[in-house]
Amino acid sequence: MRRRQFLLSTLALACATRASAQSLRPWNGIATPRIELDDLDGKPHRLADYRGKVVLVNFWASWCEPCREEMPSIEKLREALAKRPFAVLAVNVGESAAAARKFAATLPLGFPLLLDADTKTSRAWGARVLPATFVVGPDGVARYMYYGALDWTSAEVRGPIEKLMR
């Protein structure tokens, strides 16, 4: 029941914020939560292992229309910054590996899809709306956040990310 309420409130908030996509907002959390999750192949990923890189952490679900629409622009950003210290971790919220794998088969994505089946990680990050995205600086500290879909190729969104890589 708790998971269902989380998913329903997330869907409602995502739909409400979809039209208001603008630019990244400063992170308002106290401490950067940990990420220690496996990808679709069972390979473990820890946010701490990405120190020295700017990391875009995106929380998503296959049933979330704005999430599906946003993924290609995240991939384009990853491709544009491929030779720079940048990484993407896409965290699937509350779904099975089969559901995430089915979604992954529909898009060519060059970043890992991590599984948060019990939603503990997404709750720790405050990902109460999907998509929810956080930008972590090379020092491992979350710097920016955004609830809802963004065009990750826009200069307004890409600028703060590039600034963190300097």
What does this protein structure show overall?
With 166 residues, this protein is α/β, with parallel strands linked by helices. The chain has one domain (2-164): Glutaredoxin (3-Layer(aba) Sandwich), CATH 3.40.30.10. Helix content is 34%, strand content 23%. The chain is built from five helices and eight strands; from the N terminus they run αββββαβαβαββα. It has helices at residues 2-18, 65-80, 97-104, 120-125, 155-164, and strands at 25-26, 36-38, 44-46, 54-60, 86-93, 113-116, 132-136, 142-147. The chain has a six-stranded mixed beta sheet with strand order 1-8-7-4-5-6. The termini are far apart. 37% of the residues are buried. The model is unreliable at 4-21 (pLDDT under 50).
Give the gist of this structure:
With 166 residues, the chain is an alpha/beta fold. Helix content is 34%, strand content 23%.
Key descriptive features of the protein:
6-stranded mixed sheet; alpha/beta; single chain; Glutaredoxin; two-stranded antiparallel sheet; 23% strand; 166 residues; globular
Helix content: 25-40%
**How does CATH name the architecture?**
3-Layer(aba) Sandwich
What's the CATH C level? Alpha Beta
Mean pLDDT: 89
Shape: globular
What's the CATH H-level homologous superfamily? Answer: Glutaredoxin
Count structural domains.
1
| Largest sheet, strands/sense/barrel | 6 strands, mixed
Q: Which class of secondary structure composition applies to the elements?
A: alpha/beta
Distance between the termini: 45 Å
Number of DSSP helices? 5
Low-confidence residue ranges = 4-21
Trace the largest sheet across and list its strands: 1-8-7-4-5-6
CATH-derived topology: Glutaredoxin
Query: Helices and strands, in N-to-C order?
Result: HEEEEHEHEHEEH
